[in-house]
Amino acid sequence: MTTTLVTGGNKGLGRETARRLIALGHTVWIGSRDTARGRAAAEDLGARFVRLDVTDDASVGAAAEELRREEGRLDVLVNNAGVFEGMVDAEQATAAHMTTVFDVNVIGLVRVTHAFLPLLRASDSPVVVNVSSGLGSLTVVQDPARHESHFVTPVYASAKAAVNMLTVQYAKGLPTMRVNAVEPGFSATDLHGLSGEGIQTPEQGAEAIVMLATIGRSGPTGTFTDRNGPLPW
């Protein structure tokens, strides 16, 4: 059975990804910094819960040790945990904004990936999925035909651009693993609190994440895709 960890898995895209992967037969661990919400989500979905705060070394280390004891390996890591600073424009963006967002979206991703590398190496076909955004694509945000070009989000967008570069570097540096970035699409979640026309459901948003989480050993690596196919970096 495939063992999967979804960070930030107690709500939104993480929760829906967990639900879909459980339906496909995965043993899914929901990583959440909020114990009550994480346990409730795991019980509701039939997942397992591990407390995991991506900004805290001790928390991440303890989570990795718990999965080592309970599972002995990790087949799929979905780096989904993230924060959004709101529509902070170029004039408003401060070092404090950058520190908060990068600590979760970038440094947290590195912290988790590094801690779980030994468990991923114990898998026959390890897969890492980094949840990114079209806002992190230099090409997409300059394309007038794309809705991302209409937003000015220097903090969040630069963090997701960093996630994309990390994906490429991990894919190059970890050739025995499948490491890919995914654009789930503009989905109605608590991350930004927006919904309505033109904004897809979490169910739709999870499609691309699940697709990349189930590629197996013969799948691609070092790619950036949405549910319709490859995206430009």
Question: Topology, pairings included?
Answer:
Elements: E1 3-7, H1 12-23, E2 27-32, H2 35-45, E3 48-51, H3 57-70, E4 76-79, H4 95-121, E5 127-131, H5 154-173, E6 178-182, H6 202-213, E7 224-226, E8 229-230
Parallel strand pairs: 1-2, 1-4, 2-3, 4-5, 5-6, 6-7
Antiparallel strand pairs: 7-8
Helix pairs in contact: 1-6, 3-4, 4-5
Descriptive account of the structure:
The chain has 233 residues and is an alpha/beta fold. It has a single domain (3-230), classed as Rossmann fold. It is 41% helix and 15% strand. The chain has helices spanning 12-23, 35-45, 57-70, 95-121, 154-173, 202-213, and strands at 3-7, 27-32, 48-51, 76-79, 127-131, 178-182, 224-226, 229-230. Strand 5 (127-131), helix 5 and strand 6 (178-182) form a beta-alpha-beta unit. Helix 3 (57-70) packs parallel to helix 4. The chain is globular, with a radius of gyration of 16 Å. The mean pLDDT is 93.
The tally of strands reads: 8
Sheet with most strands: 8 strands, mixed
**Net shape:** globular
CATH topology type: Rossmann fold
- The CATH H-level homologous superfamily: NAD(P)-binding Rossmann-like Domain
C-alpha termini separation? 33 Å
Number of helices: 6
Give the strand content: 5-15%
Write the CATH architecture name. 3-Layer(aba) Sandwich
Which stretches are poorly predicted, pLDDT < 50 over at least 5 residues? none
Strand order of the largest sheet: 3-2-1-4-5-6-7-8
Q: What's the number of structural domains?
A: 1
Order of helices and strands: EHEHEHEHEHEHEE
CATH class: Alpha Beta
Q: Give the overall pLDDT as a whole number.
A: 93
User: Over all CA atoms, what is the radius of gyration?
Assistant: 16 Å
Instruction: Tell me the structural class.
Output: alpha/beta
Helix content: 40-55%
